[in-house]
Please model this.
Amino acid sequence: MKKFIVIIISIILIITGCSKSEQININNGERPLVYVSFYPMYFLADEIGGDNIELRNVTPNGVDSHHYEPSMSQLKDIEKAQVFIYNGSGFESWVNKLLGNMINEDITINASDSVDLIMQDGRPDSHIWLNPSNMIKIGEKIKEKFISLDRENKEEYEENFEELSNKLKELDDRFITELEERKHNSIIVSHAAFAYMAQRYEIEQIPVTGISHEQEPTPGTIADIIELVEDENHKYIFLETLASPKTVEVIAKEANLKTLTLNPIEGLTKKEQENNEDYISIMEKNLENLKKALVE
Ligand SMILES: [Zn+2]
Model:
């Protein structure tokens, strides 16, 4: 019997011990430390968590998040996080070093788990955030995680999520209705970042390079694109904010095309930050430019 009681007591100690370390001590003014891998996840966590969380972004603004490698001191700091949100499907090559090693997988949200992935050349395309309805699904997971850590602020997390998902739904509706009557169905883009946007709004993306910015197009690809531009009477080619525009400019000159920006929102530039741009305002600009190329 004594032995039995000892076992029961130790089980109780283990259970209460665990829940204590997981729940945040709100009375001490402590806020959950949330780490995100790059800007689109930062946007979601910030909108939902607001002042109730302490939020840090691993990838600094203005750098190419495809190729960013966090420093050793950054990795050490991520170890302290109560939540770690990343894109997954291979976008952050450095995440594998952390998982199950420096951070417990229980605290992580892999955004790619919440959406239907599009395969490209036998591997998942990681640009999932460019479909606003995917952002709602990922946001839902983030909201649930925040509530599980910090029940005191449950209502606020729910309200913030509700507001955010309304904004994203509105954005999604605008893309659908404003691109409905169009003259063209395809767009020429610098890298193949827009499959999720293209699938959602039934646009065909013709990329000059592959999924990553680094791939150089072959002379054959450039010739094919110039031919297609002439066949389909395209007037525009899309540039990106964080990628080198050199190849696109060569094609634009050869095929007599005007350039427009289509922002893959892989990070904010310094200027976008200064102008208080966010995911929604940049997507609205993307829509305006898509309308120029497809509708007008
Ligand atoms: Zn990309």
The chain has a mean pLDDT of 87.
